[in-house]
Design goal:
The complex is a heterodimer of chains A (about 350) and B (about 425). With about 350 residues, chain A is of the alpha/beta class. Chain A contains ten helices and twelve strands. The longest helix of chain B is centred in the middle third of the chain and has 16 residues. Classes of the chains: A alpha/beta (about 350), B alpha/beta (about 425). Chains A and B meet through helix 1, helix 2, helix 3, helix 4 and strand 6 of A and strand 4, helix 2, helix 3, strand 8 and helix 9 of B.
C-alpha cells in the first residue's frame, strides 16, 4: 500500500505569524487542545516560534506547560542564541526532554535586529554571518553539555557512598569566538541523548549551520525540483562535515490558508504525497494561516487522507521524537568505547 | 475555626543537590524524572501548601579538582520544571531560584512573566547572587563580580525587572521602556502583557545586613536559615523592623525558615529515627569529606572510624569549590576536637554529632504544637519544609500534621484565592509605570 519505503514526517507550527493570542487561561487551554489534536493525529512534532522582538510568551515555557498534557508528539520551541547564555539554553532544552519523557527538540534562531540587541544592552547586533556562526557554536557546546554526563553516570553505589561515577562526568572546556563554557552540565543526560536540533535553512546564511548541526531542516520551495536540489545540497553539506546524510530530515515548511488553498486540504495531501514520494522532501511542516481552523483541517482532513492512503502512520509507534523521525540515539561523545564502570 | 490565631504559611522544597537527601534509602526516588517533582508538588497541593520551591544549579560542585560525587548530583532547570508542574497543579505556588548574576533582566523577566501566565498567577522568584569565578566559567560574562557588588547588581536587576513588568498598565496598555543605570542600559518594548499577579512573588534568601535590607526594600518572602526559636525571634524582629522605612507593613514580608522534620508515632520513636537519619546523611566517605571541607587538606588517608587529624586546618585552601565557604575553619576544628575528646568520638561520630539537628522532631501532635508556637511567638510566619526523602518524604507530614494544624485553627482548610499572592496574604504590587 505504501508507495515509498521512506516514512513521511509531518509537523505543525503552534505560534504562527507575528505573535499569538492574549495570554491567559483560555489561551493556554486552547494551546493544550491544539497540541492534543496534533498528538492524536500522530504528527512527528509541533514547533512554537519565538523571538524577543514579537508579542508572546516564552516558547519553551509554553511547550513545557503542554508536555504533561500530551503523550507522544514532539515539542520543538524556537530558542535564540544571540543574547542568551548557552549554558542556560542547553539546560532548559535538556529539561524539556526530561519533563516530556524524550520528546524535546529545539529550533535554533538568531536575533538579528538592533532593537533586540538594545533589550540586552550588552553588544550591538552582530552581522548575519557571525550570528549564524555563533548559533553553530551554541549548537556544538549544547551537544557537548548534553554528552558531558554519560548515560550511566548515576550509580547510587552505597558501598562507596557515591551517587555518581565522576569518571563519567566530563568538563567540556569549550572555547568559542564569543563565549566559553567549562561544564559539565548540571542536568543529567537527556532521555534522547541529544534533543533534536531543527534549523530553518531558508536563508543562505543559515545553511552551513544547518548542514553541520541540524537533525531536521525546514525549507521553503516553490517546486519539487527546487526542494530536491536544496535537500541534496543540505545532505551533501552534512556529508562534507562528517555526518551521515541519512540522519538528516528535510521538511517543506509552508504557510497555508486551507480556506483559500486551491483544491483544499485534499490538494495539499496530494502535494505532500507527490513531493515526498518523488524524494524531494522527507515531510511537511504546516504553518497555519489561521491557527485553529487550519490546524484542525490539516489533522482532520489532509493527514487523514495520507493515513488512508497508507502514507502516514495511524499512531506513534515509538515514544521519543527521535523514534518518530527515525533518528538514532547518539552515544555520548565522551564515552570511551568498551568502557566499564 | 478561629481566625484570630496567626496563620501558618507552608512551602515544600525539593532539596536535590545537598547532603539532606538520603539517596541510599530504597524509598528515595529519581532526582531528575518529572514524576518525582510531580509527586512532591501534588502532595504539597493536597496539603494546601502556599508554594513549591526549587533551588538552582550553575555548576557541579568540585572537591580537590574533581566533581563531588557523595551527595545527589544533577538537577533539572527550575523554570522549565515549574512550567510543567503548572499543568498538574491548580493552586500551588511555583517558586524558582534564579540568580541575578549570570542572567539578563529582559530575558528573565520574560520567563517569569510567562510562568505567571501559564500558571494563572502562581509564579515566584527566589533572587540569589553568585560571585565566584568558578561558577562564572560556565557563562559568557564570567566570574567578574566582586562579592561586595553582587547585591548592587541584584538590586538593580530586580528594579529593572519590575520596570519591565510595569511597562504594561493594569488596563492592558503597553508602553515602551528605557532603563539606564550602572548595571544595565536597556530600552524597547516588553512583549508579555501584565501577568495575573502583576509581579511574580519575590523571595530573597540573604542573611547578611545587606541581604536583610535588600529583602526589606522589596521582597515578599524571606527564606532564612534561622530555625531555632531564639534565633528566629531575633531575625524576625530585626527584619520586620526594617520595613517601615520603605513604607511597608509587617505583613508585607513573610519570614519563612527552611526546616527539616522527623515524625514518629511517639516522640521517642521520632528521636531515634532522627538520629538514624543523621547517621545515614553522614556516610563514612561524607565524614572524611566534611573533615576536608574544614581542614582544607587531603585527609583521604584517615579512617572515618579513627581519631581526628593532629594537624591544623589550612584556612586559605581552595580544595572545595561550589559551596558556601566555612567562615572560621580553625574555630570549627577546635570545637570538633573538643567534642571528640569529651565524648570519645571517631571522625564520623564527631561529624554526625556536630551536624545540625532536625528542626522539628516528634509525634505529629508535638510537631504541630511546635510549629504553631514558633509562628505565634513571632519567630517566623511559616516554614519551607525540606524532606530528607524525595519524592515521598512529604506524604507523612501532609497526612498527619496538616490536619492537626487545621484543627488548631492555624492553617487553611481550603485555598480561598487562586494566586500565590492570595495564599501568602500579600497586597498586589503597586503599579509604578
Amino acid at each position: 500500500m505504501t508507495t515509498s519505503t521512506r516514512p513521511l514526517h509531518l509537523a505543525a507550527e503552534l505560534a504562527p505569524g507575528s505573535g499569538g493570542a492574549e495570554p491567559g487561561p483560555d489561551t493556554t487551554a486552547r494551546t493544550v487542545a491544539l497540541a492534543r489534536l496534533a498528538d492524536t493525529a500522530a504528527l512527528d512534532f509541533l514547533t512554537h516560534d519565538d523571538s524577543f522582538g514579537r508579542p508572546g510568551l516564552d516558547a519553551l515555557a509554553v511547550l513545557a506547560r503542554v508536555a504533561p498534557e500530551t503523550r507522544s508528539v514532539g515539542l520543538v520551541p524556537t530558542v535564540t542564541t544571540t543574547h542568551t547564555e548557552p549554558f542556560h539554553v542547553q539546560a532548559a532544552v535538556a529539561t524539556l526532554d526530561w519533563v516530556s519523557r524524550g520528546r524535546a527538540g529545539w529550533r535554533i534562531e538568531v536575533s538579528p535586529t538592533g532593537a533586540e540587541a538594545r533589550l540586552f544592552g550588552r553588544r550591538p547586533a552582530p552581522p548575519t554571518a557571525e550570528l549564524w556562526q555563533e548559533a553553530g557554536e551554541v549548537a556544538e557546546v549544547s551537544r557537548k553539555l548534553w554528552d558531558s554526563w554519560e548515560d550511566d553516570a548515576e550509580i547510587r553505589d552505597v558501598a562507596t557512598g557515591r551517587f555518581v561515577d565522576r569518571r563519567k562526568l566530563h568538563h567540556v572546556d569549550f572555547q568559542g569566538a564569543t563565549f566559553s563554557v567549562k561544564g559539565p552540565s548540571i542536568v543529567p543526560r537527556p532521555p534522547q541523548g541529544n534533543p533534536v536540533t531543527v534549523v530553518d535553512a531558508t536563508r543562505p546564511a543559515a545553511r552551513d549551520t544547518a548542514a553541520r548541526h541540524a537533525d531536521v531542516v525546514l525549507i521553503r520551495a516553490s517546486s519539487a525540483e527546487e526542494a530536491a536540489a536544496l535537500r541534496a545540497e543540505l545532505r551533501e553539506g552534512a556529508r562534507a562535515h562528517g555526518r551521515d546524510p541519512g540522519q538528516l530530515r528535510v521538511l517543506l515548511s509552508e504557510t497555508v490558508d486551507l480556506d483559500a488553498y486551491e483544491g483544499g486540504p485534499g490538494a495539499l495531501a496530494e502535494l505532500i504525497a507527490g513531493w515526498h514520494g518523488g524524494g524531494a522532501v522527507d515531510g511537511f511542516h504546516l504553518v497555519p494561516a489561521v491557527l485553529e481552523r487550519d490546524l484542525e483541517r490539516f489533522t482532520g482532513d489532509t493527514v487523514r487522507r495520507l493515513v488512508d492512503r497508507g502514507l502516514f502512520r495511524t499512531a506513534h509507534e515509538g515514544t521519543t521524537l527521535r523514534d518518530h523521525l527515525g533518528l538514532a540515539r547518539p552515544v555520548s561523545q565522551y564515552a570511551t568505547t568498551g568502557a566499564t564502570a | 475555626m478561629s481566625r484570630n490565631r496567626k496563620q501558618i504559611h507552608l512551602a515544600a522544597h525539593f532539596p536535590g543537590v545537598n547532603s539532606t537527601t538520603v539517596w541510599a534509602d530504597p524509598r528515595s526516588g529519581s532526582q531528575i524524572d518529572f514524576s518525582s517533582f510531580e509527586h512532591l508538588a501534588r502532595t504539597a497541593e493536597r496539603g494546601l501548601f502556599d508554594f513549591f520551591f526549587l533551588a538552582e544549579g550553575l555548576r557541579l560542585r568540585e572537591h580537590a579538582g574533581r566533581v563531588h560525587d557523595l551527595d545527589v548530583v544533577g538537577r533539572p532547570e527550575s523554570i522549565t520544571v515549574l512550567n510543567a508542574l503548572a499543568a498538574v497543579t491548580d493552586r500551588l505556588g511555583l517558586a524558582a531560584t534564579v540568580n541575578a548574576t549570570f542572567n539578563e533582566p529582559y530575558e528573565l523577566a520574560r520567563r517569569l512573566a510567562s510562568l505567571d501566565h501559564l500558571s494563572a498567577g502562581r509564579a515566584a522568584w527566589n533572587v540569589v547572587t553568585s560571585s565566584d569565578a568558578f561558577t562564572g566559567e560556565n557563562f559568557r560574562r564570567g566570574g567578574y563580580l566582586d562579592r561586595a557588588d553582587r547585591y548592587t547588581r541584584a538590586a538593580e536587576f530586580l528594579t529593572t525587572a519590575r520596570e519591565l513588568w510595569d511597562s504594561w498598565t493594569p488596563d492592558g496598555e503597553r508602553r515602551p521602556f528605557a532603563h539606564s543605570g550602572p548595571q544595565f542600559g536597556i530600552e524597547g518594548v516588553f512583549t508579555v502583557p501584565r501577568s495575573p499577579q502583576g509581579h511574580p512573588v519575590v523571595i530573597q534568601a540573604g542573611d547578611s545586613a545587606e541581604g536583610r535590607e535588600f529583602a526589606a526594600s522589596g521582597a515578599d518572602v524571606i527564606f532564612t536559615r534561622h530555625s531555632t526559636l531564639e534565633a528566629g525571634r531575633e531575625f524576625y524582629a530585626d527584619v520586620k523592623g526594617r520595613l517601615a522605612r520603605y513604607g511597608r507593613r509587617p505583613g508585607d514580608l513573610k519570614i519563612m525558615p527552611g526546616v527539616t522534620y522527623v515524625l514518629g508515632d511517639t516522640d521517642a520513636e521520632a528521636q531515634e529515627h532522627a538520629a538514624e537519619i543523621r547517621r545515614q546523611q553522614v556516610s563514612p566517605q561524607n565524614a572524611i569529606l566534611a573533615l576536608e571541607q574544614i581542614w582544607g587538606r587531603d585527609l583521604s588517608g584517615h579512617d572515618p572510624d579513627g581519631p581526628l587529624p593532629e594537624i591544623d586546618p589550612d584556612p586559605e585552601s581552595a580544595l572545595v569549590q561550589g559551596r558556601v565557604r566555612v567562615a572560621d575553619p580553625v574555630a570549627v576544628a577546635r570545637r570538633w576536637r573538643a567534642l571528640s575528646e569529651a565524648k570519645g568520638l571517631s571522625i564520623r561520630q564527631t561529624v554526625i554529632e556536630s551536624s545540625s539537628r532536625q528542626s522539628f522532631v516528634g509525634s505529629p501532635a508535638t510537631v504541630a504544637a511546635a510549629l504553631e508556637e514558633f509562628v505565634a511567638e513571632d519567630a517566623a510566619d511559616g516554614f519551607i519544609l525540606v524532606p530528607h526523602l524525595t519524592p515521598g518524604g512529604l506524604d507523612g507530614f501532609v497526612d498527619r500534621v496538616v490536619p492537626l494544624l487545621q484543627e488548631r485553627g492555624v492553617f487553611r482548610t481550603e485555598y480561598s484565592g487562586t494566586t500565590l499572592r492570595s495564599h501568602l496574604g500579600l497586597p498586589g504590587p503597586v503599579w509604578k509605570g
